[in-house]
Design goal:
Jelly Rolls; 6-stranded antiparallel β-sheet; 3 helices; mainly beta; 44% strand
Length: 169
């Protein structure tokens, strides 16, 4: 059995709509009011992405911190909504790659996507969200909408969207 499948089984992970697998490890008992909504103060998951998949363009209304645990390095892509600039962050072991970071913040309302860098491999990480994750605050990018707002990033937008409707099948 391959290592990714072993981790998916051992960590009781389920498929995630954006791509990859997850298991919720923590939900705060404390809540906070955000606008008109009540949200948990924070939440955390394990997240595993295999190299034959990707995390499609999506955004949250909360900050999300990605934590590298093991496996291959992963590239996180972000589009800054103000400057419309595309940035890349290598999430991985800094002893293996000098420009890798073991932790990275994706600010609230930022479009982002990710992929594993090494073929036939995986990346296991954790994601901590504050205020806590809620599917009501989660938006998958629609290809045509992203292309309208960020046409200069057409290749990478098309690479990491699965359906023009934003619905993953």
């Amino acid at each position: 059995m391959n290592p990714a499948k072993i981790l998916i089984d051992r960590l009781q992970m389920q498929p995630l709509i954006e791509g990859g697998y997850y298991f919720e490890t923590y939900k705060s008992n404390t809540t906070v009011k955000v606008g008109n909504h009540i949200r948990l103060i924070n939440s955390a998951i394990y997240y595993l992405l295999e190299s034959n998949d990707f995390s499609c363009w999506h955004r949250l209304r909360s900050d999300e911190i990605w934590h590298y645990y093991c496996g291959s390095a992963l590239t996180l892509y972000q589009i800054d909504q103000t400057t419309k600039q595309l940035s890349q962050t290598l999430l991985g072991n800094p002893l293996e790659f000098t420009n890798a970071r073991p932790q990275h913040l994706v600010p609230a309302e930022t479009w982002f996507a990710a992929c594993v860098n090494t073929p036939d491999s995986f990346t296991l990480m954790g994601c901590t969200v504050a205020p806590g994750f809620d599917f009501a605050d989660y938006e998958i990018g629609k290809r045509h909408e992203l292309l309208k707002h960020y046409p200069q990033h057409d290749k990478i937008i098309c690479q990491f969207t699965k359906e023009d409707t934003g619905i993953i099948t």
